[in-house]
Amino acid sequence: MAGTIEHKGRISKDVYLGTSGAFLAICIIACSVRFYVRIVHVRQLGWDDDILLFGLCCLISGVALLFVIVDTMYESDAFVFWEGPGMPPTDDLGKFIDKTFWYRRVSAAGLTLCWLSMCCVKFSFLAFFKRLIRQMPVMIRYWCFTVIYNAIVTLYGTACHWAACPYFTVDDALKLVECVAGDSLQLTIAWGAIAPMALDLAGDLFILVIPCILIYQIRVRLSQKIALSLTLCLTIVMVILTIFRITGLKYKGKLDTIWETYFVLLPAEIGLTLVAASAFRALYVSKSKNRKPAHDTITTFHWFARAKSRLRHNGSAAFEDIDKGNGQFILQEIPRGTITGVQTFIDKNGKNNVTLSTVHSADTTVYNHDGQ
């Protein structure tokens, strides 16, 4: 009977544990690499990193809670979707009911944490985009609207996990059955699942507008725009997963809680992984900044700096200072020399003009003689 329960429904227990565990491991590795890059190479942590860290903590805590109750979750799902005669076989019905309500409370806590981690993906993107639109007043106002909207959706979605079907004790067993398979099912699905997911989908689309506008306004090659769009428009994946989550909530006229749990957990893991992957762009920028551009040695006076350092090493004090800002240099006062008996012959335009300059001392008189 255990094997039948594990494979009851559309998502088997092996698939549930295998895929969610694998994506969680990938998410932890990606986030670890991101924080390594940000701390070691970029040497700076931003708001998007802080939000990502909070989301990762929520995700790990939520997955731990959901993995603890996975057996009871599949047993409860098998009970709801039982199609045989009478009641589904259980060892102890009273104990099973107690476990079901314990599962309900732990599941609500785990889903809330996974929901918060999924929302952290949005706010991490928004924190990153804020740096790109500093000089765009209209986009800043739109960014503020998007932040407020997603904050409200986050609070609403958190409340829905507790208020959509608020029955967590044995005394409310009949009301709980009505929530998941009775007359209240449509209301539970509409206000507790579809409404927050539809609002969440709208929030993803609002966020998607920002990178699309940025890509449109940047003057780069088409191939670079495509690469940039693949980097910035990662929320498209979240939109697709949200649509999958909405379309599969109701199964055989009942609420499929395993489907709902799986498609809250999976988008959170994938979303955090994609956010963490954006750190490799920061690593590329950091390495590009560290590259020293090639300058002309004449215009930048590198030859002068090397000569100056050698003269200082030999004890010479002929040069006093260098202006590092623009490459100009200041010379210490150079003593006048004494030139005696020097003749300079200059052949200019076919005429022989000889200028004899005789300097007897620093204060001598200069005589100019024409060659006639």
UniProtKB/TrEMBL annotation:
<comment type="similarity">
    <text>Belongs to the SAT4 family.</text>
</comment>
<feature type="transmembrane region" description="Helical">
    <location>
        <begin position="264"/>
        <end position="284"/>
    </location>
</feature>
<dbReference type="GO" id="GO:0016020">
    <property type="term" value="C:membrane"/>
</dbReference>
<dbReference type="InterPro" id="IPR049326">
    <property type="entry name" value="Rhodopsin_dom_fungi"/>
</dbReference>
<protein>
    <recommendedName>
        <fullName>Rhodopsin domain-containing protein</fullName>
    </recommendedName>
</protein>
<feature type="transmembrane region" description="Helical">
    <location>
        <begin position="15"/>
        <end position="39"/>
    </location>
</feature>
<feature type="transmembrane region" description="Helical">
    <location>
        <begin position="189"/>
        <end position="214"/>
    </location>
</feature>
<feature type="transmembrane region" description="Helical">
    <location>
        <begin position="108"/>
        <end position="128"/>
    </location>
</feature>
<feature type="transmembrane region" description="Helical">
    <location>
        <begin position="140"/>
        <end position="169"/>
    </location>
</feature>
<feature type="transmembrane region" description="Helical">
    <location>
        <begin position="51"/>
        <end position="70"/>
    </location>
</feature>
<keyword id="KW-0812">Transmembrane</keyword>
<feature type="transmembrane region" description="Helical">
    <location>
        <begin position="226"/>
        <end position="244"/>
    </location>
</feature>
<dbReference type="InterPro" id="IPR052337">
    <property type="entry name" value="SAT4-like"/>
</dbReference>
<feature type="domain" description="Rhodopsin">
    <location>
        <begin position="33"/>
        <end position="271"/>
    </location>
</feature>
<keyword id="KW-1133">Transmembrane helix</keyword>
<dbReference type="Pfam" id="PF20684">
    <property type="entry name" value="Fung_rhodopsin"/>
</dbReference>
<keyword id="KW-0472">Membrane</keyword>
